[in-house]
């Protein structure tokens, strides 16, 4: 069983309030098809369809304060309660203790150690690597986990060769903002199909969509709605090219943010875990997924025993 982890940074399950929640404000037909006609709000938690189910996951993990990116992502990737381990919710970038926890073992390293293939499907521009090498920038927890597992992050060359995707899915940002005129361009539907094709090359793959968290901090409803519609098109392409009877797509997050544009801060809301795939995989998720801490062990089980 192959597993694609589509990580949406900063997406919680909020109330059905169209004034503050862009998920409640706009129709997203592909997502709603997976939610039995409902929208991605707290009220939809527990919904099941013929190919999917939606669960609500605790992101607070019993630690005071609002969940943050570094500790939340590290928890997703290690199955350990990282906020409790380091004594606080911390982010956005990992500190020394979060790095230590990732280095001790994470999904990428565990799967590679068991002879499985794993990949982070995001491409990173040359400037990103220059800043890392100069010490002026730290990788986020996801990229850090991949590097600590001995994976080479995907480059511009990988993007051009069709081995990775840009963070905006289409490649448009690489052309217009980063100056890579030769970047291949996709429609959002095509990008979803390409994501499916890339994921089929590995036992486990992860794509990090960090734009969702940026949108939450900006508090621009029109921009948020526009991006959710684009993301829904990506999802449509992904589903059209995915074998739901054999392989699993897991869509989840590290903390809430985008679902409440009344504040630019993170939220204490649970995060969604949307599972698309065969009945056995969904049943196992229903039995075991309660918090961010449960994600990594479940993915390992899916890959190893699915």
3D architecture notes:
The protein is an alpha/beta fold and 306 residues long. It has one domain: Alkaline Phosphatase, subunit A. The protein has 15 helices and six strands. The protein has helices at residues 22-25, 29-34, 69-78, 82-86, 96-104, 107-113, 126-134, 141-148, 156-160, 172-176, 188-199, 211-218, 221-240, 279-288, 295-305, and strands at residues 3-8, 52-57, 118-120, 204-209, 248-252, 271-276. It has a six-stranded mixed β-sheet with strand order 2-6-5-1-4-3, sandwiched between helices. α5 crosses α8 (141-148) and α11 (188-199) crosses α13. The longest helix has 20 residues, at 221-240. The model has no long low-confidence stretch (mean pLDDT 97).
Provide the gyration radius in Å: 18 Å
Overall structural domain count:
1
| Helix-strand category | alpha/beta
What portion of residues belong to β-strands? 5-15%
Count of DSSP strands: 6
How does the major sheet shape up?
A: 6 strands, mixed
Could you name the CATH class? Alpha Beta
């Amino acid at each position: 069983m192959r597993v694609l982890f589509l990580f949406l940074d900063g997406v919680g399950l909020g109330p059905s309030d169209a004034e503050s929640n862009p998920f409640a404000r706009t129709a997203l037909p592909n997502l709603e098809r997976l939610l039995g006609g409902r929208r991605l709000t707290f009220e939809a938690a527990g919904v099941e369809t013929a190919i999917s189910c939606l669960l609500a996951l605790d992101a607070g993990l019993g630690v005071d304060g609002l969940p943050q990116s570094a500790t939340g992502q590290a928890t997703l990737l290690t199955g350990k309660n990282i906020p409790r381990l380091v004594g606080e919710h911390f982010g956005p970038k990992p500190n020394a203790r979060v790095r230590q926890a990732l280095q001790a073992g994470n999904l990428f390293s565990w799967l590679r150690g068991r002879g499985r293939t794993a990949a982070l499907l995001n491409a990173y521009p040359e400037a990103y690597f220059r800043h890392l090498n100069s010490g002026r920038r730290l990788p986020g927890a996801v990229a850090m986990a991949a590097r600590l597992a001995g994976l080479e992050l995907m480059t511009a060359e990988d993007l051009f060769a069709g081995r990775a995707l840009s963070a905006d899915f289409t490649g448009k940002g690489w052309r217009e903002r980063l100056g890579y005129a030769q970047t291949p361009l996709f429609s959002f539907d095509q990008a979803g199909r390409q994501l499916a094709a890339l994921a089929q090359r590995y036992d486990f793959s992860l794509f990090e969509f960090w734009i969702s968290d940026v949108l939450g901090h900006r508090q621009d409803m029109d921009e948020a709605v526009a991006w959710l519609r684009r993301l829904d098109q990506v999802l449509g392409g992904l589903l059209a090219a995915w074998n739901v009877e054999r392989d699993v797509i897991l869509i989840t997050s590290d903390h809430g943010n985008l679902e409440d544009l009344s504040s630019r801060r993170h939220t204490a809301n649970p995060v969604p875990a949307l599972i698309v795939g065969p009945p056995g995989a969904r049943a196992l998720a229903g039995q075991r997924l309660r918090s961010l801490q449960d994600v990594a062990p479940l993915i390992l089980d899916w890959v190893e025993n699915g």
